[in-house]
Design brief:
The protein is about 80% helix and about 0% strand. The longest helix is centred in the last third of the chain and has 32 residues.
Length: about 140
């Protein structure tokens, strides 16, 4: 595996996180607490692996610049901006949400999870969308 392979790995990890987040949501709605916990810990672990791979890719000089088609660039940049800003915001939210669950402070956990879950899901899904746009839909946009 080379740095060139990391964007696909990152997209896969983001997609897996989204699947685990959806499964965790369904489990808690069905009051399957142990399954919810397992899904959310797996989603967290997958997101940590993503972050390691993402930072490695950029440390090794990985860079993409969307250029073509020019008509789509503003849409791509809007998606990328919301994805990036929320990716930064979500990190402390995830840590606080996880911390509250681990300390069995479930009422407080529930209050913040109402915000954490949809933002985390958005970041995971838009991470896959960014990859698809850059490497599958408009591959000429990537170097």
């Amino acid at each position: 595996m080379t740095a060139h392979d990391l964007p696909a790995v990152n997209a896969t990890l983001n997609g897996l996180s989204a699947i685990l987040l959806a499964a965790g949501f369904m489990c808690i709605k069905r009051k399957q607490v142990a399954a919810h916990r397992a899904c959310m810990i797996a989603a967290f672990s997958t997101s940590v692996l993503f972050l390691i791979c993402y930072l490695t890719y950029h440390y090794l000089g990985g860079f993409t610049k969307f250029q073509n088609p020019p008509w789509f660039r503003p849409y791509y940049l809007a998606l990328l901006l919301t994805h990036t800003v929320l990716a930064v915001v979500i990190v402390p939210l995830i840590l606080v949400t996880l911390n509250r669950a681990m300390k069995k402070r479930f009422e407080l956990h529930k209050k913040i999870a109402r915000w954490t879950w949809p933002l985390w899901m958005y970041v995971s899904v838009t991470g896959v969308a960014v990859y698809l746009i850059l490497y599958q839909i408009f591959p000429q946009a990537a170097p």
